[in-house]
Specification:
Layout lengths: L2 H13 L3 H8 L2 H4 L6 H13 L3 H14 L4 H14 L2 H14 L4 H13 L3 H14 L4 H17 L3 H11 L7 H12 L5 H13 L5 H9 L4 H12 L5 H17 L3 H14 L3 H13 L3 H15 L3 H13 L3 H14 L5 H14 L3 H13 L3 H10 L1 H19 L3 H5 L2 H4 L5 E4 L1 H7 L1 H5 L3 H12 L2 E4 L3 E5 L7 E10 L3 E8 L6 E8 L2 E5 L10 E6 L4 H8 L9 H11 L1
Antiparallel strand pairs: 1-2, 1-8, 2-3, 3-4, 4-5, 5-6, 6-7, 7-8
Helix pairs in contact: 1-2, 2-4, 4-5, 5-6, 6-7, 7-8, 8-9, 9-10, 10-11, 10-12, 11-12, 12-13, 14-15, 15-16, 16-17, 17-18, 18-19, 19-20, 20-21, 21-22, 22-23, 23-24, 24-25
Length: 576
């Protein structure tokens, strides 16, 4: 048989998808007919080897093809693709650069080289090649979209939202709607608060072009901030042909959003359907919350009880059922649940439980236990407990505060002399310190811009009313505009040339905390509380003459109890 006849037989094997046989019979022909070989024959062998998953043979046939025509762009591109998948990125880069020396506008070579450079963190070079790939206008839609994803990722690393959007508009104009590109735009809008209006418009556009794909609808609903709009998406999802697993997923998500939207009856219906399929404690818990809002206290209590049977003594469930028993005026059962919840709760959340238990004891006529629980909540800084004690038990609160203050003072009196000698604290003594709002705003500008305007204003208004007064005995701190200040004794834990770390013990009792103070250009820098993840320092400056509002706040006391003597003396001096 001649080479032409043997080649025709091999081509027939390729059509019959007999790839292994083709490789086995074709490989020897490379040596037998070396002078008659052409690129197309070697590529036929390479394609068969690839289909037969013989990577070594595939690479070998490509190298033979390159030997035949070193500048063949198709061969160089196949070698680059093979190296990207199975070999060396450096070798792939060499092949791609060889292509671009011959054809600088080669779209796929530019695209692949952009990917390699991006992986190697050469962002500017990657962008250059991605731009060239897009300008050639030779790529398939999915390849163009993948470049868009990579370019947006690069721009987001440098927080260049405007440049990323300009790139998308250049190659994927808005008037030609593309689902995946619009999702990219939405991602950009979502991460930059300057584009809130565009974010809403993009969401609305995606709603208009909703494909009948369950995963897509679920993903879109997950990022939809408006609960009612999300519910509408879930309604559309439920109208599709879904598996039982998919229906359950949609029901769970829709039921949760119905609770958010306060559509209680519909939420109950969805949780009914979920419970019919599988009895999970969360379903009973959420249905109980909805039933409570519908004034079905009996049904809500039954659901909480069933959730507890399934989930054991979960603190949140005991708390929820306890509060519901209290609403139903079943105070003994409420106290039992709240007491059990306290035993199951860590330090976080205990103060609130003590408060609720104190209120229940009050309503049940058990004053002694009520005061004990409310005092514990007060000592842990739960503001509602303080207000409730002042209203219901002012004499008991005053007595406990006085006893606590005496005991804590006795423990800290030895620190007064050491505190007075502190070079850093000496700069703070005898002055009222208030926030330097211009510096605080500058330091927190990014975080504030991400908040709604009304919320930013609330945060800043509260912060502007802070006051700090430090004496060698102790300090008084009105944090975030609080009406009731933190009055605390302190000891120096660590002091350096530049900063001091204090341990604070509230006069009323409860847990201690830490405060760090330093000075810069005459201003006090305050970190409070000092935690494992440190917050930004707040700048304070000394007030030469306190305002009438500030003096009123300093002199006003919720209880007929004086502050510690040194604080009282400092306030008296300011009053004069």
């Amino acid at each position: 048989m001649s080479f032409i006849e043997k080649r025709a037989a091999l081509e027939q094997l390729f059509e019959q998808q007999e790839f292994e046989a083709l490789v086995k019979q074709g490989a020897p022909l490379i040596f037998e007919y070396e002078q008659e070989l052409d690129i197309d024959f070697l590529l036929l062998l390479a394609k068969a080897a690839k289909a037969a998953q013989k990577n070594g043979k595939y690479e070998y046939f490509l190298f033979k093809a390159q030997e035949k025509e070193p500048d063949n762009l198709a061969v160089l591109l196949l070698l680059a693709e093979h190296e990207i998948l199975f070999g060396s990125k450096l070798s792939a880069r060499n092949h791609l650069e060889a292509i671009l020396e011959i054809d600088p506008a080669h779209a796929k070579a530019n695209s692949y080289l952009g990917d390699i450079l991006l992986d190697q963190l050469f962002y500017d070079k990657a962008l250059l090649h991605y731009q060239k790939a897009m300008q050639a206008d030779q790529l398939a839609k999915n390849e163009q979209e993948q470049i868009a994803v990579s370019v947006v990722d690069i721009y987001q690393r440098s927080r260049s939202t405007a440049e990323a959007l300009a790139f998308l508009e250049q190659y994927f104009p808005k008037e030609k709607f593309q689902l995946n590109i619009e999702k990219l735009r939405l991602r950009l809008y979502q991460t930059d608060s300057a584009y809130k209006g565009e974010y809403k418009a993009s969401l609305a556009l995606l709603h208009q072009h909703l494909p009948e794909e369950i995963i897509y609808i679920l993903n879109l609903a997950a990022i939809e901030p408006d609960a009612k709009a999300a519910i509408a998406l879930y309604d559309k999802a439920m109208a599709l042909e879904l598996s039982e697993k998919e229906k359950t997923t949609v029901l769970k998500k829709r039921a949760y959003r119905l609770v958010q939207a306060e559509e209680w009856a519909k939420a109950v219906a969805d949780y009914d359907a979920l419970i019919a399929g599988e009895e999970q404690p969360l379903y009973f818990e959420m249905r109980a919350e909805a039933k409570e809002q519908l004034k079905d206290l009996k049904g809500a209590l039954q659901d909480y009880s069933q959730a507890l049977k399934l989930d054991g003594a979960a603190s949140r469930l005991l708390k929820a059922r306890g509060l519901l028993f209290a609403k139903a005026k079943q105070y003994d059962r409420a106290a039992a649940d709240l007491t059990a919840a306290i035993k199951e709760t860590g330090s976080m959340g205990l103060a609130e439980l003590y408060y609720h238990l104190g209120v229940v004891y009050t309503k049940n006529g058990d004053r002694n236990n009520a005061v004990k629980m409310l005092i514990r909540a007060d000592q842990q800084g739960f503001a509602k407990a303080t207000v409730y004690l002042e209203e219901k038990y002012p004499e008991q609160l005053q007595k406990v505060r006085a006893n606590s203050a005496d005991k804590i003072r006795a423990k800290y009196e030895a620190e007064f002399a050491r505190n007075a000698e502190s070079p850093i604290l000496q700069q703070a003594f005898g002055q009222l310190w208030t926030p330097n709002m211009s510096k605080i705003i500058a330091a927190s500008e990014k975080e504030l811009l991400e908040l709604p305007a009304f919320l930013s204003k609330q945060v800043l208004d509260k912060m502007s009313k802070e006051m700090l007064l430090i004496t060698p005995e102790g300090l008084l701190f009105f944090e975030n505009g609080a009406e009731v200040p933190l009055e605390a004794y302190y000891r120096v834990e660590v002091e350096s040339e530049h900063a001091i770390l204090l341990t604070l013990q509230p006069v009323k009792g409860g847990s201690s905390s830490s405060m760090r103070i330093s000075f810069f250009e005459g201003e006090l820098l305050l970190h409070y509380p000092v935690l494992e993840v440190d917050s930004a320092a707040k700048y304070y400056y000394p007030v030469e003459q306190p305002s009438a509002d500030q003096l009123e706040k300093l002199n006003k006391k919720a209880l007929a109890l004086n502050y510690m003597p040194a604080i009282e003396a400092a306030i008296a001096e300011m009053n004069t």
